[in-house]
Write a structure and sequence with these properties.
Structural class: alpha+beta
Helix content: 10-25%
CATH topology of the largest domain: Porin
Strand content: over 45%
Number of helices: 3
Number of strands: 11
CATH architecture of the largest domain: Beta Barrel
Distance between the termini: 100 Å
Oligomer: single chain
Radius of gyration: 38 Å
Order of helices and strands: HHHEEEEEEEEEEE
Strand order of the largest sheet: 1-3-4-5-6-7-8-11
Length: 267
Amino acid sequence: MRHRGSLLCLLTCMTVAPPLAAQAGKDEKKEDDIVIDNRPRSKQREIKEGQTETTEFESDTPFGGAAPDPRVLREERWKPGVGWGFRLGFAFPMGDYSGNAKLSQVADGLIFLGGEVGYWFLPQLFTGVALSGGYMLPDCGDDASCMAWQLRGGPLVLWRVAPFSNLTPFFGVGAGYEWITFNASTDTISANTSAHGFEYVNLQAGLDVRSRSEIYGVFVSWSLGKYTKYSSSVESDLPGFSKEESGSIEDPQTHSWLGIGVRGTFE
């Protein structure tokens, strides 16, 4: 009877133990599969933000990876609106000031800074106004000190070729009005002279590099104008040398500026 009870107990243990062992193994496996991120929430947030910034940077790079910011997305994003830009460059004087006096005898060059503001009616078409001013490099000899300035402004029209490409050629035409001012002085005399007139045409061409809404590029420009009015004043310690006068320039001639530089555009 005692042997029969022991046998029954052994059979019961053999029947119950395997399922319990199997269940324990499953529970242990599930616990092993669980990965707990013990890093602080701020650290997790920084990692996610870093991944997002990396993705945005790659999409914002014109020449990065496979088709970042593709052309079709640029076309979908575009809409008419206000645009503006800036320019920095150097211009070479050409042509005559008046009579036989060449503009290059008055100034050796022009360092200019300009801006433009207007409206993009089409992806290709910009219409607005441009204003620029700069410091002329005057040629006044060794015995005098002098300064010279130039200011111009007027309407401007730009036309882009392939406006949604990474490299975008453009052409422009404008007109306006131009002023120049010279100040020269020696130990005994000081003179201030200004001249102004219409700028008949201003032609431009260049190449832009696109990065989403910011566009940077290079340009060349050529303008044709004529100074027709002048004013001058002379002050001197010597008697009879001080005077002021203004009027029309005798025998005015056409002059031009050939400019090169860099520019940026924002839409």
